[in-house]
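> example.struct
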C-alpha cells in the first residue's frame, strides 16, 4: 500500500483519527458535546452512525436555522465518511457547516463549526482553507484547544513544518497546567506525523502507542481507535518490522472488524511475505468496502508479481476510473495518480502535470518526492534531483524516498550517490515495495562493482535499441 497512503493527512478520509473526539476536557459533563461532535461508531453497531444522521436530519427539519443541530448533522456525516471511506459524505458535512455558519459565525459559539470545517477541508485537500478555518476558531475561542491540531495539520501538509510545530506545542502545555487525557491524545496522535517527517521514528511510534492507550481509556469511537492502531502498523511496516505491523493491524481489525484501511495494510504485509493469495484476498476485501485508487494499484501490483498480468491490468484500469470519477476525486487523488502513472510508466506527461498541480497547494516532502519521480520518468533527471533534495530535507526515514533518490542519481551517472541511497532504502525497509525493493537490491549489486560505468538507464536504453 505504501507511505503515500499513511503519511498524508493520511489519506483523505482519515484526516485525523481524533477529529472531534476530544474537547479541552473530557469530563462526564462534556460527554454529550463530544458525541455530538464526533458521532458514535462501533463495528457491531454500524447502523448507529446512520441513525445519528437520521436523528440530526430530523432535528434540522424542525429548525433549519439552529446551528447546533447543523453541527451535529455535519459531525455524523463526517463520521460516516471516516468509517466508510466515502468522501462524498465530507461534501454533505461541509454543506451543513456552511449553513450553520450562516446562522452563527461571529460569536464564540461558532468556533466548533469552524473547527469541524477545518477537518473537512483537510480531507478535501483544501489545506489553506483548513488553516484559515482553524484560525477563525482560535480567534473566537483562544482558550479552546480543539482547533490547534488541525491548524498544525494544515501547515504540515503545506510543508510549513515550523508553523505546524508551533500549533502542536499548544497541546503540550495546557494553560491550566493540569493533565487532560483528551489533550494528551491530540498531542500524541497529531505530533506523531511531524515526528515521522523529522526522521524521529522512535518518538513517532511512542506517540501513537500512547495515543492508542489514551483512546481506549477515553472510550473513543471504535473507528478512531482502529485508525490510530492502523497508523502504528503502517509505521512499523515502513520500518521493516512485519511482525509488529501485523500485530498492530490485527488489533485495528479487532477494534473495528472489516476496517478497510487495516485490511489493505494486511494485504501489504502478506505481499511483503510473498503470500500472494492472502494478499489478494485482503486487498479485495478492502476494495469491496471502498475502492480507493491506492488499494486497486497495490492489488494490481500483487497480480503482476504473481504472474497474472490480465488481472493486474483490470486493477490498473480501475485506478484511473476511480481517480477521474468526480470533481472531488480529481482534487483528492492528484498525487496518488501521479505516483501511479510514474510507477507504471503510463501517461508520463500527465503524471508530471498532476504532480505539478499538487505542488501548487501542497509543499510537503511527499509532494516534492512525487514531482521528482515524475520528472525522472519524463527524462528530466537534473530537475528531479532538485526536487528529491527538497523531499529529503527533513531527514524522513522512508525507503521509497531513498529509492527514488537512488534512481535519480543513477540516471545522472552518480554511482556512489545512487548506491548510498539504495543502501539506505534497503536498510530502512528491505520489504518497502514488492516491485521496487527487488529492483533496488539488484541495482545496488551492480553498482557495487558488477557493471561498467554506464548508467542502468543507459544500459536499458541500449538493450531496447538493440532489440
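> example.seq
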Amino acid at each position: 500500500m505504501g507511505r503515500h497512503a499513511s503519511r498524508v493527512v493520511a489519506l483523505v478520509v482519515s484526516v485525523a483519527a481524533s477529529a472531534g473526539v476530544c474537547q479541552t476536557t473530557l469530563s462526564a459533563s462534556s460527554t454529550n458535546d463530544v458525541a455530538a461532535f464526533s458521532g458514535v461508531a462501533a463495528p457491531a453497531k454500524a447502523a448507529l452512525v446512520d441513525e445519528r444522521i437520521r436523528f440530526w436530519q430530523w432535528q434540522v427539519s424542525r429548525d433549519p436555522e439552529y446551528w447546533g443541530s447543523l453541527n451535529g448533522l455535519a459531525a455524523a456525516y463526517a463520521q460516516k465518511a471516516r468509517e466508510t471511506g466515502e468522501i462524498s459524505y465530507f461534501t454533505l458535512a461541509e454543506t451543513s457547516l456552511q449553513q450553520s455558519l450562516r446562522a452563527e459565525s461571529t460569536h464564540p459559539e461558532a468556533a466548533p463549526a469552524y473547527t469541524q470545517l477545518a477537518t473537512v477541508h483537510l480531507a478535501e485537500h483544501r489545506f489553506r482553507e483548513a488553516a484559515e478555518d482553524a484560525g477563525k476558531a482560535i480567534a473566537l475561542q483562544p482558550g479552546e484547544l480543539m482547533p490547534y491540531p488541525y491548524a498544525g495539520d494544515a501547515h504540515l501538509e503545506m510543508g510549513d513544518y515550523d508553523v505546524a510545530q508551533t500549533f502542536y506545542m499548544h497541546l503540550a502545555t495546557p494553560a491550566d497546567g493540569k493533565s487532560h487525557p483528551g489533550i494528551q491524545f491530540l498531542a500524541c496522535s497529531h505530533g506523531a506525523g511531524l515526528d515521522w517527517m523529522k526522521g524521529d521514528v522512535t518518538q513517532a511510534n511512542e506517540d501513537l502507542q500512547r495515543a492508542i492507550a489514551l483512546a481506549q481509556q477515553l472510550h473513543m469511537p471504535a473507528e478512531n481507535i482502529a485508525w490510530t492502531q492502523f497508523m502504528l502498523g503502517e509505521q512499523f511496516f515502513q520500518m521493516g518490522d512485519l511482525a509488529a505491523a501485523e500485530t498492530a493491524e490485527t488489533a485495528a481489525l479487532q477494534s473495528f472488524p472489516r476496517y478497510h484501511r487495516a485490511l489493505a495494510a494486511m494485504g501489504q504485509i502478506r505481499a511483503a511475505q510473498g503470500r500472494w493469495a492472502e494478499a489478494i484476498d485482503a486487498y479485495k476485501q478492502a476494495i469491496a468496502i471502498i475502492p480507493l485508487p491506492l488499494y486497486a494499484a497495490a492489488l494490481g501490483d500483487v497480480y503482476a508479481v504473481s504472474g497474472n498480468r490480465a488481472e493486474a491490468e483490470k486493477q490498473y484500469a480501475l485506478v484511473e476510473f476511480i481517480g477521474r470519477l468526480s470533481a472531488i476525486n480529481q482534487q483528492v487523488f492528484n498525487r496518488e495518480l501521479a505516483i501511479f502513472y510514474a510507477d507504471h510508466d503510463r501517461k508520463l506527461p500527465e503524471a508530471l502535470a498532476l504532480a505539478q498541480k499538487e505542488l501548487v497547494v501542497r509543499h510537503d516532502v511527499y509532494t516534492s518526492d512525487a514531482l521528482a519521480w515524475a520528472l525522472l520518468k519524463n527524462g528530466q533527471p537534473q530537475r528531479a534531483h532538485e526536487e528529491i533534495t527538497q523531499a529529503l530535507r527533513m531527514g524522513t526515514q522512508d525507503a521509497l524516498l531513498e529509492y527514488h533518490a537512488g534512481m535519480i542519481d543513477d540516471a545522472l551517472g552518480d554511482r556512489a550517490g545512487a548506491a548510498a541511497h539504495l543502501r539506505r532504502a534497503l536498510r530502512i525497509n528491505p520489504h518497502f515495495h514488492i516491485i521496487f525493493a527487488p529492483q533496488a537490491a539488484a541495482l545496488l549489486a551492480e553498482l557495487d562493482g558488477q557493471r561498467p560505468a554506464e548508467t542502468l538507464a543507459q544500459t536499458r536504453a541500449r538493450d531496447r535499441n538493440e532489440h
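> remarks
Residues 53 and 241 are 40 Å apart (CA to CA).
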